[in-house]
Structure formats: C-alpha cells, structure tokens
Amino acid sequence: MADTIFHKIIRREIPADIVYEDDHLVAFRDIAPQAPVHVLFVPKADFATLNEVPEASAVVVGRLATAAARYAKQQGFAEDGYRIVMNCNGDAGQTVFQIHLHLLAGAPLGRFGVPAPAP
Ligand code: 5GP
User: Fold this and answer.
1) pLDDT per residue over 80-107, tens digit each?
2) Which of 7, 15, 80, 92 is the most buried (most CB within 10 A)?
3) Nearest Cα residue to 100 out of 15, 36, 31
4) Residue 64 pLDDT more than 80?
5) Coil, helix or strand at residue 45
6) Side-chain-side CA neighbours of residue 40 (13 Å)
7) Alpha carbons 35 and 18: distance in angstroms, whole number
8) pLDDT of residue 1
9) Looking at the DSSP assignment, which residues form a beta bridge with residue 84?
10) Residue 9 and residue 39: Cα distance in Å, rounded?
C-alpha cells in the first residue's frame, strides 16, 4: 500500500483540517493555500498519478470533481467561480504521489500555466 502524507491524513495519523469525508474520498484544506479557498480532494483508492488511473476507474476521478462542485455550492461560491486542478508529475509540479484535486476559489484566479515560447 502506498504511504504518502495524504494516506497518513486519511488514517488520522497526522492532523488536517478535514472539511468532507465519505466512503470514497477525503477533502481537507491545503497547508499552504494558493487562494482564499484551497481544498484538496483525495481518493481513498491508491493511484500515484493520473497516469495510473485506468478507464475502469474513471469514477474515482469523477467523484473528486463532483465532490468539489458540491462543496462549492454548499459554501456559496459556485456561482462566483472556482478552479479545479490535478497536477501530474514533474512539469506540473506534483509533490505528493497520491492523486488529488485542488479546488481553488475565493478571488479572481487569473490565468495559469506558462506562455508557449514564441515561434
Ligand atoms: P501537488 O503539488 O502534489 O499537486 O500538491 C500537493 C499539495 O499538498 C500542495 O499544495 C501542498 O501545499 C499540500 N500539502 C503538502 N503536505 C501537506 C500536509 O501535510 N497537509 C496539508 N493539508 N497539505 C499538504
């Protein structure tokens, strides 16, 4: 079994500000928020990166997205807007190798990524 910091949070071995949990996933506030609202949605099923998720397990990723949207509606910022992000491997800056969805909200978020080099 994988044993990342997120697995330790799921097992309650280290503290986190958990805002939602069900049989499939846990959501908790990011320790270094990049927006006024920054919540991580983490499945209980083990997948190091999105690359490891087979088609048959697409529901695992779908549940993260729908849980994030439900949370946005419950918290009252769904209409103002929010961003969901899943980083995969080095170029995206993934640092924890258990898949997770970032939910960012609470202010205009600007653009993201880096510009393509000029031709
Ligand atoms: P990644 O860069 O892998 O997409 O995102 C990992 C996220 O996990 C980062 O935004 C980082 O701030 C957050 N993080 C890392 N360690 C902890 C922790 O111990 N607790 C919480 N709540 N968030 C963490």
Assistant:
1) 999 999 999 999 999 999 999 999 999 9
2) 7
3) 31
4) yes
5) coil
6) 24
7) 17
8) 57
9) 103
10) 14
* Spatial separation of the C-alpha atoms in residues 25 and 40, rounded to whole Å: 10
Task: Indicate the Cα dihedral angle 45, 48, 54, 55, nearest 10°.
Answer: 80
- The owner of tokens 């920054």 is 38
Looking only at the bridges linking them, the beta strands covering 37-43 and 18-21 are unpaired
Higher-confidence position of 94 and 119: 94
> For residue 28, how far is its CA from the centre of ligand 1 (angstroms)?
10
20 CA distance to ligand 1 centroid (A)? 17
Tokens of 22: 């069900």
Compute the distance between CA of residue 67 and CA of residue 73 in angstroms, rounded to an integer. 10
Task: Name which residue sits closest to atom 17 of ligand 1, judged by CA.
Answer: 31
Ligand 1 atom nearest residue 93's Cα: 2
Give all strands (DSSP E) within the chain, no chain letters: 18-21, 25-29, 37-43, 82-85, 101-105
pTM above threshold 0.85: yes
